Amino acid sequence: MIEIRHLKTLMALRDTGSLVEAAERIHLTQSALSHQLKDLEERLGCTLFIRKSKPLQFTGAGMRLLQLADDTMPLLRAAQRDLDRMAGGEVGRLHMSIECHSCFQWLMPTIDSFRNNWPEVEMDFASGFNFAPLPALARGELDLVITSDPQPLANVSYVPLFRYEGMLAVAKQHEFTRKHFITEQELADETLIVYPVERDRLDVFSHFLTPAGIEPRETRSAELTIMMMQLVASGRGVCALPNWALTEYLERDYVRAVRLGEQGLWSTLYAAIRTETADTAYMKDFLRTAKDVSFRTLNGIQPVHPSEEH
């Protein structure tokens, strides 16, 4: 018999393309996931995907089950929302802000989907580079903040969404394009282009340059990602951004990307919420939708390790 957990497993396998990452995403060991898939194949009497294929390839049977999953899971989610409303969980407010200024690519589809599913919930969006959203969340002025820099605040919980790698965007002619990674010291001779926010809110400073005691030769700011890419492409500086934010410009052969440090500059993106709203139906659904949309639309992100779940 096909179970809901089987459909979730196949969707995770399709989205990640890897048994290891699929197991992390649904919080199973790789051994348990492999056993589950093998058991399902034995029940059905057919193979669902081709082992050791890169990229991972599904068989005709596997594709049919994925079609079933795509048809079924939205219906289950819709039914759950209806039940939550019947239980009185439909009324609420969701005022949000972001500290990750390149998040609009996936956050806007999340908001659109949520607004359609929860028309009764009052929504608003606060933005601005000089705005400190986490203290506003703690004061009750906001209900959710997207951030990669969790701060210990009373009555604030952090829900990890996904892991991402910060990459350095450079011009196609830059000498860094010949390197597999660059060190902190190598940025000392560069002009670093950043968003106009405090340094401690930028991963390239807080987790890379500042711990090493390194300063770039110069910094200049730009409010929009496209402005940053224009400056980088014309050789007027380099810029550190999440890997997914660079995908469009790399595909267009506009700039190049280089790893920051030999192990890469990995961070976790969180949804910060007030603890009192964590169990509301609409908040739970927004966080589920955010994870689903991000893994469906972003390249290069990874599931959060279970040890980071709060």
Characteristic terms for this protein:
D-Maltodextrin-Binding Protein, domain 2; Arc Repressor Mutant, subunit A; 3 domains; 10 helices; two-stranded antiparallel ribbon; alpha/beta; ten-stranded mixed β-sheet; 310 residues
Brief characterization of the structure:
The protein is α/β, with parallel strands linked by helices and 310 residues long.
Report on the architecture of this protein.
With 310 residues, this protein is α/β, with parallel strands linked by helices. It folds into three domains: 4-85, Arc Repressor Mutant, subunit A (Orthogonal Bundle); 93-161 and 268-308, Periplasmic binding protein-like II (D-Maltodextrin-Binding Protein, domain 2), CATH 3.40.190.10; 163-266, Periplasmic binding protein-like II (D-Maltodextrin-Binding Protein, domain 2). It has helices spanning 4-16, 19-25, 30-44, 60-86, 104-117, 133-138, 203-209, 225-233, 243-251, 281-297, and strands at residues 49-50, 57-58, 93-98, 122-126, 144-147, 156-170, 181-182, 191-194, 218-221, 238-242, 256-260, 265-274. Strands 3, 4, 5, 6, 7, 8, 9, 10, 11 and 12 form a ten-stranded mixed β-sheet that branches. A two-stranded antiparallel sheet has the order 1-2. Helix 1 crosses helix 4.
From the helix content, strand content and strand pairing, which structural class follows? Answer: alpha/beta
Fraction of helical residues = 40-55%
- The third-level CATH topology of the largest domain is D-Maltodextrin-Binding Protein, domain 2
- CATH uppermost class of the largest domain: Alpha Beta
